[in-house]
Write a structure and sequence with these properties.
Blueprint: H1 4-9, H2 32-35, H3 39-53, H4 60-67, H5 71-74, H6 81-93, H7 107-124, H8 128-132, H9 140-154, H10 160-190, H11 195-207, H12 213-218, H13 220-226, H14 231-255
Helix pairs in contact: 3-6, 6-9, 7-10, 9-10, 10-11, 10-14
């Protein structure tokens, strides 16, 4: 266990996965038998708290209270809060059902499946977005996801020098789309509204604001052509079209 003073003085950790701290061996000094604690349980409860209360409200003290132990008991299993957040991030990547990139399936279908799952993960766990942009994402589940994506992209026929660009184009798009979608759902829930109610109220306010009304009028044809009676339907149409646009771009680049 690292003392609080040591934690404060140490420089930022590169990654829990590079510090020889995950997985961490048991020790007779620890109270796992008395408290029922282990690293898996701590990580699972962390994920549950982050889902329920968000990243801003999460603290080691709050986690300890949920586990019904002292904060120092948690520090027997992780040295810092960042270590625990990194473990939680990799834990939810384990929810992804990854296709077999060596199967004779069409790479397009595999790519669609991967993007849809990644998007759902970001919406289901909105706190993952800032953490994925903070940490190295080199835990075992994250690496499984990354390697599967890489192997699917290799089958597209793109030249090797363009494959990382294709991965960036696809998955940075999904990251941004899923992040905005997840945060919109959070704001709607915080306001005590459905997403459709929140959207209608926002659009009404914008329309009634003199400086913004022209923007709505100029975009009227786009909104009509977009279609969809609900926020979810509009979002699905946008996501599907954008993804197909990227897939067609990969096909065109591979053929050229």
């Amino acid at each position: 266990m690292v003392r609080a003073a040591d934690r404060a003085e140490r420089p930022a950790r590169t990654s829990v996965w590079l510090e020889g701290k995950a997985p961490r061996a048991g020790s007779g000094r620890r109270s796992e038998h008395a408290s029922g604690l282990d690293r898996d349980r701590i990580t699972e409860v962390t994920v549950r708290l982050l889902d329920a209360e968000g990243l801003a409200k999460f603290s080691m003290r709050r986690l300890a209270a949920e586990l019904n132990v002292t904060a120092m008991s948690v520090y027997w299993y992780v040295d810092t809060k960042d270590d625990l957040l990194e473990l939680a991030l990799d834990h939810v990547y384990g929810e992804l059902s990854l296709p077999d990139p060596d199967a004779p399936d069409d790479w397009r279908d595999q790519l669609r499946a991967l993007t849809c799952q990644y998007r759902s993960l970001l919406v289901r766990h909105p706190w993952t977005s800032p953490l994925a942009g903070t940490f190295l994402n080199i835990g075992p589940h994250s690496l499984d996801f990354s390697m599967t994506v890489q192997r699917v992209i290799r089958r597209t026929g793109l030249p090797t020098y363009g494959q990382t660009g294709a991965i960036s184009a696809i998955f940075q798009f999904v990251y941004g789309f899923g992040t905005i979608e997840g945060h919109f759902a959070q704001r709607s829930a915080a306001a005590g509204m459905t997403q459709d109610e929140y959207y209608r109220e926002a659009m009404t306010t914008i329309t009634e604001t003199p400086d913004l009304a022209p923007l709505i009028q100029e975009s009227a044809d786009l909104m009509e052509a977009r279609g969809g009676d609900t926020v979810e339907e509009m979002r699905e149409r946008d996501f599907t079209f954008a993804l197909e646009l990227l897939i067609k771009g990969i096909e065109a680049m591979a053929e050229s």
